[in-house]
Write a structure and sequence with these properties.
Layout (H helix, E strand, L loop, with lengths): L4 H4 L12 H4 L16 H18 L11 H13 L5 H16 L10 H13 L8 H20 L20 H15 L6 H9 L1 H4 L12 H12 L9 H4 L25 H14 L9 H18 L7 H18 L5 H18 L4 H15 L14 H4 L47 H14 L5 H10 L7 H12 L10 H28 L10 H23 L1 H10 L13 H11 L5 H8 L5 H9 L8 H9 L8 H17 L8 H19 L9 H7 L11 H10 L12 H19 L11 H22 L3 H21 L2 H15 L15 E4 L2 E4 L2 H8 L1 H17 L7 H13 L9 E3 L5 E3 L18 H9 L16 H21 L12 H10 L13 H15 L5 H17 L6 H18 L7 H11 L3 H21 L7 H12 L5 H15 L12 H24 L13 H15 L4 H8 L3 H19 L5 H16 L10 H19 L2 H4 L6 H19 L10 H17 L5 H18 L14 H14 L6 H5 L3 H7 L1
Antiparallel strand pairs: 1-2, 3-4
Length: about 1450
């Protein structure tokens, strides 16, 4: 089939646009015409090959193929045989496949649908048609037809056949090949009935039992092989006889099979010897270096070997002799044929290799490593430049620095236990090695397809990737094949240097993607409890994982050494890879030397330079001391040494290495060399001889005589023997090079030799479909795998690929949840969101105008996004998958929320979200809609005030008031249809994403903060920024999610508060609507904070933030602030308890009282707190705060009155009936006075001392009443002074008569300040008509308070200063306006005071004899002097002196 290129690349593809995939997912497919389908011969060929693709997919996950109906399996073959488009080779291949199905028993009497299949088969072979090509090929078709007919008639299904018409022809050549296949299958089927132990025992004694005269046959050609190897080396024909055996593995004698041909004597039925001889002959035919066999012969042998392996299956590994023959040279020859340029040979060799791996995988660990490394090297192509702006590229899939564990050519050659361990006892002169990578040219064209299909066949096992990781990546001595294969597959999904439309490239991309998706699917199945238990006879998984970590450290250390040796050694020491187990024998130098010798990842040039430095003599001695030179010729020993590093070019370094080598080699006791100096000279001569023979710049080569003359008498004064010198010369016919520098056939031979050496210690290949390594594997490859899936999803059009990509996305998300890897979720979301086309390139500054039409009773906005998204089938699929993944795994999402909310923002700006997602909750009466323009959202009730808000509303509309707003484009029918597709999709999408509103995460608002920071521009204009509806939508969405996930408030609060505080702290830079929504959002979050005791302190931080808003902003949002605060306090009465907390709450209230509606709500809140009832919350902590806030309301009443008076005389005076502020002020006075009745309870509950309670509670209350007794509002003023008088003259539980300081505080802080204020002209002008009455009442209060508080019998306190101050005030009051009532009323009040003072013997006039004490005399004198100033003679008139009374009498 491969001979016809158009058939090799004909693959049937189904466009996803024409498929039912979208309909199955609930999408509405647009009716846009996408062009006529491709027709013609090419399409019919594609349909024929498409049948095989469908069959391949159908059987992929089927465990028992016998459950599939036979006609389904055979249908693609029948169609191809019937088609006149096929050529002879194509038809021949199809017939051969049918024959193979008979042979393997797939077509049997037990097959489902056998009758129908045989009818179709008979019809097909009788109507076979194909294009004539060459006569030989056409005859083969006829032969194959006869073979199929023979299968039908002669096999056990022949009894089912009916009457058929058969066209026969003569049997042609190649029938012998089919016969040979049948014979070999019969022979190898004997293995299933033979006893391995018994047969192997017979084989070991076979040579002794061979009768005399029996002939041994062999097809071996060893001499020719050796000659071929010599030619590959490019050296003269002298060879070291010791080199031949080194290429062979060391096996026990039983592994060398004898060659037996039976004679005429009687013997039992044939057994293992015959099978072994047959296998040996077949394998020897494969030797590519044996020129007596042609490629045609090798093709026959490959086919027969493949049949043999298929027939024997894993049973062949139970026979050590057969296994040894397959391992070497069988695998060696097959791997060499895998490099053949003959396509047929390559095809059959790869098929046979695949069969061997299927049957003998347990015993082919290193062989599989070599083959897979070779395969990946051949398949790897240099990356092609991708299209500019492509969403997914190979470069993007691999971001960051290369992993230290990613192998380069060659792998570290260390003992498995430690990098510091000594060489093994079996081979002390060698470190453990792995084959160096054989450099090969990249495969192209049909060769690449063959290798890729073979790789697909080898990797089809569910456990394959696990096996790679456990056997190779977790082995220090092996390559990281899992990482290499995953890297290749992910890169191969992207386009290479082939033309983009090339079918071969597309097939390769599809196949690699299919392998990746199969890997993800297998891992998902294991994660869903379908994993096998790790066998106990395998190394523990923990040790393998630890080895993987150590391997990574070794690779990193080697890399650092190559960059800077000192840095690398420091890293190795830090990670205990060297200097770990030091002792007298294991010195520091020996420990380091062990690592340097064993790790071939090191730069050999740098290694040679480093160990030969003068400072590293000890290290050089330890390094060379690790080699075992016993019984080795000097030239061989030197070659072994110089193959471990590159000899430096400096003469001193070469001399230093040679001297050290001479010392250590001579210590091993060489036979012919008699001194260390002689070793030095011979070693130096060998180096010079090698250079002379292989340096192309040397024209005159050294002769043997020259060499002999140069070494004359250097062996301790004697000459070396001629045999020794001949050996030295012949040993240099092959150039001394390092292993990694071997190329071509020589390189392969060296790699195979190392493989056989390592295979003795490698152990068996572990196979187990276990999940113990899945998390480590997934962490390594998830990013490039998801990138590759995303590229395939966006770039390929075939329905099957899209379905598989969708499944891959979902499975990656499932694995991310299973392994708890949030980064994977984020990457899946980012990949899918980019494919949806719902992300905008830049944030829209202004919202365009789009046409709105009525469709089926609903308003539909036809926007650019709706039209574009309605036609984007891939985008709709991506969005469906994205939100299904997020809906089920939203709690694991991190950075991906950014893309989710960017899509919501874009949908919102294009009016594609439903109403329920556009609602804003507040505390003023329900919900409102987020406007797309700058107008404020509709409110249930209009606010009473104007001014500022009116100006803001008009300003916010300014950017959208231009005439361009009315230029709405018309919507076409196609646009409407595409928009309806989008609307239908959005409804389905929201059903899947409804759970998103209940999810929360700390990074949800990352995008919000970024948008906020990017959008803020400082300006002198307080409201210079236009309204941004997207910011409001995102804010509302964020808070809605948070409110529906209160259990995550602890994690979410810092991020939410950061965004809200950033907005509110620069509130003058945003639209007032955004600020209002931020305030509401903050208070809504506070309701959740109130439910978490550990977070309640954040409520007061929020209060402090809100109370600090600028006055204009606070007034605008005051209604929302107070409503939210009221709701919070009523729902959580204990949320505010301490005095500081109450002060913050009252400060928040005070910041909003400038807004009349907010003031009304605030006063209602304060009233509920300070009044009797269920909501009463008066405590000792908020008592002073209540006084302050009530005082604020009374002051506002006065301010309102003054503003009204300033408007003019014609304005109506404000009263409680026509002014809400005055009414609130008057009620505030009553509330303030009523606080007195709560004092006893507070005093008993708080257990405060009376003097402290007096100063904290009682005195501030009196001070407030005193201050408001001068209020501009007459009703407030009169009510305050009346209640002040009641408070001062009534009973008082906190007043202590014995403590005169209380009396002084009352007069100095309550009464005197009141009278001082009333005497001020500016206070008088507040209410000229009513202020005289207030002065009159205040003067009376002064006198009454004095008489009530100070004038008592037995008064011992000296209150002369207080009394003089009273007289001063009465003087001022009496003389401030002689025309009013105050001038007449004050003397009367003063008279009453004097009489009471006299009656209580406080104010006593002089008498004869004068019996007064000093205090009475002083008080009388001071009183008389002061009163004479404003009421002369009044004191004597009221209280006459005794002498005066007597004289009068």
């Amino acid at each position: 089939m491969r001979k016809n290129s158009r058939w090799a690349s004909s693959t049937h593809f189904v466009s996803s646009k024409d498929s039912t995939l979208g309909s199955n997912l609930g999408l509405r497919i647009s009716t846009t015409n996408y062009g006529a389908q491709v027709t013609g011969q090419g399409n019919r060929e594609a349909e024929l090959m498409g049948g095989f693709q469908e069959l391949k997919r159908a059987v992929r996950d089927i465990e028992d193929i016998n459950t599939i109906e036979l006609p389904i399996i055979l249908a693609p073959f029948f169609a191809l045989i019937r088609s006149p488009l096929s050529t002879g080779p194509i038809t021949s291949a199809a017939l051969s496949s049918l024959h193979s199905l008979f042979v393997c028993g797939l077509i049997s009497p037990a097959s489902i649908g056998l009758d129908h299949a045989l009818v179709e088969l008979s019809s097909t072979v009788s109507h076979c048609k194909f294009e004539a090509s060459d006569s030989s090929g056409d005859e083969v078709v006829l032969l194959k037809i006869m073979a199929v007919i023979e299968d039908c008639l002669c096999e056990n299904v022949g009894t089912v056949l009916g009457d058929i018409e058969i066209r026969l022809s003569e049997t042609l050549r190649r029938s012998a090949e089919n016969t040979m296949h049948a014979l070999v299958r019969t022979v190898f089927s004997r293995l299933h009935f033979l006893d391995p132990a018994m047969e192997e025992a017979k084989l070991r004694t076979g040579d002794e039992d061979v009768p005399e005269g029996e002939i041994k046959l062999t097809v071996s050609n060893n001499e020719h092989l050796e000659a071929t190897h010599e030619e590959g080396d490019g050296a003269p024909q002298e060879l070291n006889p010791g080199n031949g055996p080194e290429l062979e593995p060391e096996r026990e004698p039983a592994a060398v099979p004898p060659t037996l041909i039976t004679s005429g004597i009687d013997r039992p039925q044939y057994g293992l010897p015959s099978i072994l001889e047959l296998l040996r002959v077949l394998i020897n035919v494969l030797d590519p270096m044996d020129q007596q066999h042609t490629d045609s012969t090798r093709l026959i042998a490959l086919g027969i070997l493949n049949a043999a392996f298929e027939e024997s299956g894993p049973r062949i590994t139970e026979f050590p002799s057969l296994e040894a023959l397959v391992l070497d040279p069988g695998c060696k020859y097959l791997f060499q044929l895998a490099r053949s340029e003959n396509t047929s040979v390559l095809h059959f060799a790869l098929r046979t290799i695949s069969t061997i791996f299927d049957t003998m995988r347990h015993h082919l660990k290193l062989q599989q490593e070599l083959f897979l490394a070779f395969t990946i090297d051949r398949l790897a192509l240099p990356p092609a430049p991708h299209l500019k702006g492509s969403a997914f590229t190979a470069k993007k899939a691999y971001t960051g620095s290369p992993r230290p564990g990613t192998p380069r050519p060659g792998t570290p050659m260390l003992n498995a236990n430690s990098g510091t361990a000594e060489p093994s006892e079996q081979e002390p002169e060698k470190g453990t090695t792995v084959p160096s990578r054989v450099l090969v040219a990249p495969a192209r064209g049909e060769t690449r397809d063959l290798i890729l299909e073979t790789l697909s066949q080898i990797t089809r096992h569910p456990s394959f990737m696990v096996d790679l990781y456990a056997n190779y990546d977790c082995d220090i001595n092996c390559e990281n094949l899992f990482e290499r294969l995953a890297e290749f597959l992910t890169k191969a999904v992207y386009p290479t240097d082939y033309p983009i439309e090339d079918p071969q490239q597309r097939n390769a991309q599809y196949l690699c993607l299919d392998l990746l998706l199969a890997f993800v699917n297998d891992m998902t199945i294991r994660a869903e409890a379908a994993s096998e238990d790790w066998p106990t006879n395998f190394p523990p998984p923990e040790s393998l994982i630890q080895t993987k970590s150590q391997k990574k450290l070794i690779l990193t250390g080697a890399s650092r050494f190559n960059a800077k040796p000192k840095s690398g050694i420091a890293f190795l020491e830090e990670n205990q890879l060297i200097y770990r187990d030091l002792s007298e024998e294991m010195t520091r130098a020996r420990s380091l030397a062990s690592f340097l010798k064993g790790c071939t990842r090191l730069d050999k040039r740098l290694l040679g330079d480093y160990i030969s430095k003068p400072d590293n003599i000890e290290l050089l001695e330890a390094f060379i001391g690790l080699f075992d030179f016993h019984n080795k010729p000097v030239a061989e020993a030197l070659r072994e040494l110089l193959e471990s590093f590159r000899l430096p070019g400096e003469a001193q370094q070469i001399a230093r290495i040679t001297e050290t080598f001479a010392s250590i080699y001579f210590a091993s006791g060489p036979e012919e060399i008699k001194s260390q100096d002689a070793v030095y000279v011979v070693a130096y001569s060998v180096i010079m001889l090698n250079t002379d023979l292989h340096n192309p710049q040397v024209r005159k080569r050294m002769t043997f005589e020259d060499y002999q003359r140069n070494l004359r008498q250097v062996n301790d004064g004697e000459n070396f023997s001629p045999e020794f010198l001949v050996y030295c010369v012949n040993s240099q016919r092959r150039e001394i090079v390092m292993p990694e520098e071997h190329t071509g056939q020589l390189g392969f031979e060296h790699a195979w030799k190392e493989l056989l050496t390592r295979s003795r210690q490698a152990g068996d290949f572990m196979i187990c479909n276990s999940s113990v390594f899945d998390i480590d594997m997934f962490k390594i490859v998830w990013k490039p795998v998801i990138s590759a899936i995303a590229y395939a999803f966006t770039s390929f059009e075939e329905e099957y690929i899209i379905q598989r990509s969708i499944a891959g996305f979902k499975q990656c998300a499932t694995l991310a949840g299973h392994f708890r890897l949030p980064d994977v979720f984020d990457f899946v979301v980012v990949s899918l969101s980019e494919a949806t086309s719902l992300l905008s390139d830049s944030a829209a500054v202004r919202v365009p105008s789009y046409p709105v039409i009525e469709v089926e009773g609903q308003s539909v906005t036809v926007s650019n996004l709706s039209v574009k998204f309605g036609t984007n089938f891939k985008g709709q699929l991506a969005a469906v998958v994205l939100f299904n993944i997020v809906n089920g795994n939203g709690n694991a999402l991190r950075e991906g929320w950014t893309q989710i909310f960017e899509m919501f923002q874009n949908l919102f700006l294009h009016s594609l979200l439903p109403t329920r997602m556009l609602q804003m909750e507040d505390f003023l009466g329900g919900v409102s809609m987020i406007p797309l323009r700058g107008s404020a959202p509709p409110r249930p009730a209009a606010r009473s005030e104007g001014g500022l808000l009116s100006a803001l509303s008009s300003y916010l509309m300014t950017p959208y008031s231009a005439s361009a707003e009315h230029l709405v484009p018309e919507a076409t029918d196609s646009d409407v249809e595409n928009t309806l597709c989008t609307i239908d999709y959005i409804d389905a999408l929201l059903a899947a994403v409804r759970a998103l509103e209940a999810l929360a995460h700390e990074r949800t608002v990352a995008r919000l903060k970024q948008e906020s920071d990017d959008g803020v521009t400082q300006s002198e204009d307080a409201f210079s920024l236009p309204y941004d509806p997207a910011s409001v939508f995102l804010l509302e969405t964020m808070v809605s999610i948070l409110c529906q996930a209160p259990q995550h408030i602890g994690e979410l609060w810092p991020i939410v508060f950061e965004h809200l505080s950033a907005v509110l702290s620069t509130s003058t830079q945003y639209s007032i609507l955004l600020i209002e929504r931020a305030v509401v959002s903050l208070l809504r979050v506070c309701l959740i904070l109130a439910q978490e005791p550990s977070l309640r302190d954040q409520i007061y931080v929020s209060f402090d933030l809100l109370s600090g808003l600028p006055s204009a902003i606070a007034s605008s949002v005051g209604e929302q602030v107070v409503s939210g605060l009221t709701f919070l306090l009523h729902k959580h009465k204990d949320i505010v308890s301490s005095q500081t907390e109450w002060n913050l709450a009252f400060a928040l209230i005070r910041s909003t009282v400038a807004n009349s509606e907010a003031a009304r709500l605030s006063f209602e809140l304060v009233t509920s707190i300070a009044s009797d009832g269920t909501d009463q919350l008066i405590t000792n902590d908020n008592f002073s705060g209540l006084i302050t806030i009530l005082d604020e309301f009374m002051a506002i009443a006065g301010t309102s009155t003054e503003h009204s008076q300033a408007k003019g005389r014609r304005s109506e005076p404000l009263t409680s009936a026509n002014s809400p502020p005055v009414a609130r002020g008057k009620k505030a006075v009553d509330l303030l006075f009523n606080l007195n009745k709560f004092l006893p309870e507070l005093l008993s509950s708080s257990q405060l001392p009376k003097h402290q309670a007096w100063r904290q509670c009682c005195l501030p209350l009196l001070v407030s009443l005193s201050r408001q007794s001068a209020n501009a509002a007459r009703e407030v003023r009169h009510s305050a002074i009346s209640l002040l008088q009641r408070a001062l003259l009534g009973p008082h539980i906190l007043f202590e008569e014995a403590d005169h300081t209380h009396v002084e505080e009352i007069f100095n802080r309550v009464v005197f300040p009141l009278l001082d204020d009333l005497l001020k002209p500016e206070i008088f002008r507040r209410d000229p008509q009513g202020m005289p009455e207030t002065r009159l009442r205040a003067s009376a209060l002064l006198c009454k308070a004095f008489m009530h508080l100070d004038v008592r019998e037995g008064q011992t306190k000296d209150f002369r200063i207080l009394w003089i101050q009273i007289l001063d005030l009465l003087d001022r009051l009496m003389n401030i306006d002689r025309s009013d009532q105050l001038y007449e009323a004050i003397p009367e009040s003063l008279k009453n005071v004097l009489l009471v003072m006299n009656a209580t013997s406080i104010l006593v006039p002089p008498s004869e004899p004068d019996t007064r004490d000093e205090r009475q005399r002083t008080l009388w004198t001071a009183t008389q002097e002061r009163m004479e100033r404003f009421v002369p003679g009044f004191l004597i008139e009221v209280i006459p002196q005794p002498s005066t009374e007597a004289a009068a009498t």
